[in-house]
């Protein structure tokens, strides 16, 4: 099976991600299992290999050579912002006392996700200051914070003071400065 795995890995294009390499290794195991099951399936080794290769090629066509988890994190972050921007984020005006928050509006927010901050950026775009536990549970969904934040940084959505430092003390809420994950809503490329 090591020989099969080496053959499958050697077929991959130069820029294949580690996820694609792992998937190719699993298809190599299917190829080897097909060889072992000849008596049951009635397939020749060549037929089994061709069917397995076709299934792998179809998978590549659907998912590409990139790391799928990166796409999922960026997609979930965009969806989260678009779905909850007006229902789970408290509007906050940067530079105003306590963000000039509307207490009546705040009372209507159940399950606060963070703050929609205006007036902090030169380009005028709003920032979403997300509570770290909400970010971990509802956007990353089990993916490591370092990996997810790097994917968002690569997509141009992550706002951080320095690369690799994902939480930032940015705004004061009720007199206390808190740490948030800060994102902007970048249009898809």
Automatic annotation (TrEMBL):
Taxonomic superkingdom: Bacteria
Record's protein name: Propanediol utilization protein
Organism of origin: Klebsiella michiganensis
